[in-house]
Amino acid sequence: MIAEILLLEDDNFTICGEDLVTDLKDMGFGLLRQWTPAFARKLFMCFENALTIRMARIDLLNAPIGMKTAVAIFKLFLKEKLKKRIYIYNEDYEEMFKYIPKSLLPKEYGGTEGTLQDLTDHWKNKVESYRSWYLRENLKD
Q: How many CB atoms lie within 10 A of CB 96?
């Protein structure tokens, strides 16, 4: 939903693409187990073929044990271009800061762009402000 809003409001998002930063710190084995090769293949096919968004980077933070192996397996299903755009960081984000400025990240990740709660509240309000638009779009299906 946020990606749709960014496509509507931000031309820079359309041109430059998305840097997806995901914290996996509290991801348990049960959730990781649900990522079957078939699910991963479908998910990444959507990223590569269905979304009109250019995936510039995928940064995975605080990956649990076994995540590097899982990512290596999932990369088997990806095109070469997307394979090279997936990065894993644990605790030390200095390398990531070379590509994603601290000014774009929340304080919890060494950034200066407010807190996670601030960002959560902002995007919750933004998505809710698009409620009627989403309802209209849903009726078109």
A: 20
In the structure, what pLDDT confidence band is assigned to residue 141 with cuts at 50, 70 and 90? low
Q: Would you say the pTM of this structure is higher than 0.85? A: no
**Half-sphere exposure (Cβ direction) of 5: Cα atoms closer than 13 Å:** 15
In 3D space, the residue among 32, 29, 20 whose CA is nearest the CA of residue 61 turns out to be 20
Per DSSP, helices labelled H in the chain are 2-9, 11-16, 29-33, 37-45, 67-74, 80-83, 94-97, 116-129, 131-139
Cα distances from 41 to residues 49, 58, 75, 96, in angstroms, run 12, 16, 9, 26
- 3-state percent breakdown (helix, strand, coil) of the chain, nearest 5: 55, 10, 30
d(CA 44, CA 40): 6
Q: Which residues contact 40 (CB under 8 A, 6 or more apart)?
A: 73, 74, 77
Which domains, from first to last, does the chain contain? 17-98 (3.40.525.10)
